[in-house]
Specification:
It catalyses: 4-maleylacetoacetate = 4-fumarylacetoacetate. The chain is built from eleven helices and four strands, in the order H-E-H-E-H-E-E-H-H-H-H-H-H-H-H. With 234 residues, it is of the alpha+beta class. It folds into two domains: 80 residues, 3-Layer(aba) Sandwich (Glutaredoxin); 110 residues, Glutathione S-transferase Yfyf (Class Pi), Chain A, domain 2 (Up-down Bundle). Strand 3 and strand 4 form a beta hairpin.
Length: 234
Amino acid sequence: MIFYHVLVCFESGMSKPILYSCYRSSASYRVRIALALKGIDYEYRPINMFAEPGEQFSEEFRKVNPKCELPALQIDGLTLTQSLPIIEYLEETRGQVGRPLLPKDPAKRAVVRKLSEMINSGIQPMQNLSVMRYLPPDVSRDQWAQHWINRGFQALEDELAKVAGKFCVADELSMADICLVPQVVNAHRFHVDMSPYPLIERISSSLRELDEFRRTAPEVQPDAPQRGSRTQNL
């Protein structure tokens, strides 16, 4: 508890973290969940990815992240990018604050990282807006996304059958769960049939009932459009 007290005092003298985010960015959603689980207050700076060519390509944002990608988190005098390193940084610097994002057991940590990367590297990138915009006109976006999500979910469901409990890895909420929910949200958006993936659907549904997941969901973010708008359907 001494560490917690020192950390709170340290953060009280620091400027509030700034999260550059877009409501529908899966990677940004992960970081929003992690910040909520850690109880970290932050300033939300929306970046409109749906503008032409997209605010992430502006000179102003390029100074924040030269890769022109979301999210970016300014915290502790650093500018961090890439969602999984951000989540691990939050756990490494604030391990005793809020909920843990990684198990203490090294073997379980390895499993959490494996499941996280199956989503982060193996499934989600194929639905990135930067990829979808370059699909040929005769290729259905839904069919494209369904193919890659189904391919990834088949493997993920098999892996979860070995290790899942209440959450992805036993009964400990972790980075794997943080990655899972945004990907399931994407699957629903692209009308993926979830019936072959009962474990994925059960775990995700349970997680989405938690306050930290509800208040970080895309539809309740300040930059989320009204239902039925063209931007929402891009």
